[in-house]
Amino acid sequence: MNNPSLSEILNIKHPIIMAPMFLVTNTKMVKEAMKAGIAGAIPAHNFRTIEGFELALQELEQAKTEGGAWGVNLIVNRSNPLLNEQLLACLRHQPDFVITSLGDPSGIVESCKPEGIKVFCDVIDSKHARKAEEALADALIAVNNQAGGHLGPYSPEELIPTLKSETNLPVISAGGVGDSEGVQRMLNLGACGVSIGSPFIACEESPVSAEYKKAVIDYGSGDIVTTKKLSGVSCTIIKTPYVEKIGTERNLLETLSHSLPFLKKTIKTLTFYRGMSALRKAAFSATYKTVWCAGPSIDYVKAIVPLRDIVVQLTKSAE
Ligand SMILES: Cc1cc2nc3c(=O)[nH]c(=O)nc-3n(C[C@H](O)[C@H](O)[C@H](O)COP(=O)(O)O)c2cc1C
């Protein structure tokens, strides 16, 4: 069985990816991640234009550091009208890896593999994992039920061994890790590495508002709730007073329109764009409409610190 560590797959010092986070991970963070000896990934959908995306790729290409690696997250379903252009930009600027989410990765693998760009696929169960293996992906990102953002239904204890036994792909665990013991726990379960998001939201280099960072410090795992209101699929958010007021369940009209076949596609797209816009406003401006995305691993965040200190916390006992 193929069992390389993520450090070997990406030629990085520590087997850790700073996960792509919509509106949060920026080029500054990815560059710092590389300097600290881990990989960092940036979501293509952070950029409203291809020109902006291309500039970011150029910056990262030039900043590539020994012992670090950089990647791009592509949304590969129909909600992403820019996918083809984003892919072409990736082929021009050669990230070390691409992470696919929310759809069929085969077209991405076909284009990236010949260029030496690795493709890792976000999966939540063995059905999706087998599809990624059929598409000849390089590794799986096993998104568990403790992950921030779009989470899966299974615990890492269930998910990692299942994916290891049902596929031959290396498994990168995503969700719930915030210290070096957590990293080691995932490696002991059979993961080749770990993808970590929420613990980086409040780092010094992060572009989000002081209010969002303070919430990540002040709130804890008990305050994380899931909602389908934002993107149509379950997404974790902090239960602020505003979220309590609007609720996390879809209202009757939203539920009805999602169940009517002729309206389903339009409503899904509308929900997605409205949700993303709510997140964008809350991430960067002082507004009482605080819809902040984060996962239970914010428990590990105690202060705003430089990104490299978080990497030290994640790797210290290993050294
Ligand atoms: C604020 C936030 C935004 C996210 N945005 C994305 C995204 O754009 N694309 C993606 O594939 N995953 C996204 N995720 C999921 C992360 O890539 C990763 O799977 C998750 O953070 C792992 O769980 P953790 O937060 O406990 O470390 C996001 C997570 C958070 C917390």
UniProtKB/TrEMBL annotation:
> Out of the domains of life, which is the source?
Bacteria
Record bears the keyword Oxidoreductase: yes
Fetch the Gene3D superfamilies from UniProt.
Aldolase class I
Q: Which CDD domains match?
A: NPD_like (cd04730)
Keyword annotations of the record: Dioxygenase, Flavoprotein, FMN, Monooxygenase, Oxidoreductase
Q: Which SUPFAM superfamilies match?
A: Inosine monophosphate dehydrogenase (IMPDH) (SSF51412)
Please name the GO terms that the record assigns under molecular function: dioxygenase activity; nitronate monooxygenase activity
**Keyword match Flavoprotein:** yes
- Give the record's family classification: Belongs to the nitronate monooxygenase family. NMO class I subfamily.
Q: What is this protein called?
A: 2-nitropropane dioxygenase
